[in-house]
């Protein structure tokens, strides 16, 4: 096994992926066992609704942290965990939504429609979930090839909006104690702020270099390194 | 703790009681934390003996009552009431207490008194500093306060109130959302003007002074048409005035309950 952190062997990466997979699954397993054992407090539906929602948000933020972590650490292989993290975020969102439809509302479609249309915190949470669906559906190499890297990338930039919607959803839900939503909002602000800052640096860098030679003008210049 | 001597009440519901663990472990008492399990974890820090309650304002005989005096003021009744939280859950709780009217009679309210303000215990050394504007205050119209359903509770499940439930003395107004029922009361003040109340000050568009349980007046962020009885899976329809319409609807005759929510 290659123990070099900078360029681990394929086997090490697979092992690492397996560990992250298990860790991502842990909260769901915990909730399922707690439900079985009747150990989720007086209002177990509220407990699993809250937990699945909060894990969605955490996983979204972790997914968005991959790129900054990779840039700061130089561990480029971290990128290979991102798809799995994003899919787990979607899985928890799906669970959260299913709990709401089934256990919370018991498929009372009138009440659900009213909730989505009339209650801003649900509207914005629902929007975040709907926007996640195309990202989950195109999170495979086939979709990347079909869409082309650029279109795929601009589609997947909607994850920034999704993360903002998810934080707003939580913020508007709480009655008075905004501590937790504020924590997530701050982390998201840092993650998005870094990207804005990098963009600005890149813009300045491009302004400072001489214009490209005539024969390169209409060609795509790859700014992202190949995987 | 010791059993309290109680007499049964005709005002009790016959619905099955919520589990004791839920009643004493799933609480909103924001001074001790905003998670439902926080009060049961943190309220032990509060000293509830000695405890005095000042009754003052527009009364003929303002007085301080020692808590042991209050326990002997009137026969303790067991009152099994529905409790509906503004968050959409409900319980059935066997309170022990006596009508607030019995206490108010002792101090002889003046004709000018129109409202009753309740001020609760606040100790920044053991309680949360932010979230709401402490101390927590609540209020009732005088006729609501004098209504036979309005209870000063000193116990639950036949024993003295656990601290997380608002020991040693709390209000219980069963036809209003739970937050109206102030916990760990230290001052009861009769006033001419409608008193400011904690949640109303925090978000007036969400929590009105009256806050009667009303399935037709929705909270801006969630429906009030249904509720989940703790311990049950399916939601049930919420009843007007939490099922106490027969006793209290007359208090609000001619009032637009959408306006006075």
Concise structural overview:
The complex is a heterodimer of chains A (227) and B (261). In chain A, 74% of the residues lie in helices and 0% in strands.
Describe this structure in words.
Chain A: GO terms for molecular function: electron transfer activity; FMN binding; heme binding; metal ion binding; oxidoreductase activity, acting on diphenols and related substances as donors. The complex is a heterodimer of chains A (227) and B (261). Chain A is mainly alpha-helical. Chain A has one domain (10-207). Helices cover 74% and strands 0% of the residues of chain A. The longest helix of chain A has 30 residues, at 44-73. Chain A starts with 9 loop residues before the first helix and ends in a 19-residue tail after the last helix. The mean pLDDT of chain A is 91. Helix content of chain B is 14%, strand content 25%. Chain B has 7 helices and 13 strands. In chain B, strands 1, 4, 5, 8, 9, 10, 12 and 13 form an 8-stranded mixed sheet that branches. In chain B, strands 3-2-11-6-7 form a 5-stranded mixed sheet. In chain B, a hairpin with a 2-residue loop joins β8 and β9. The termini of chain B are far apart. Classes of the chains: A mainly alpha (227), B alpha+beta (261).
